[in-house]
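Progress report, Aim 2. The chain analyzed during this reporting quarter is listed below.
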Amino acid sequence: MEVRLTIPDHIVSQLQLNGGDLGRRALEALAIEGYRMEGLSLGQVADMLSLSINEADSFLKERGIPLLSTLADYDHDRATLENLLPK
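Predicted structure tokens for the chain:
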């Protein structure tokens, strides 16, 4: 899907002072917000930004976004550990 944004020139000039590709930065911002709102998984963020899962995790951590975990994730991890650890 292609998305077009209309941004006033004086704002584009200000945004470009910080450097980088504005299209890429907009895509990254959309991925961050999608993840933060729990609309995107880590894998979807990775796919959206053409990153590996580890790279996407690092990308989010560098921006202060913690890895989101659900109660089901913790239950799954606990069950896995119980199966792996000696009884």
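The mean pLDDT is 87. The CA atoms of residues 59 and 70 lie 20 Å apart. These observations will guide the mutagenesis work planned for the next reporting period.
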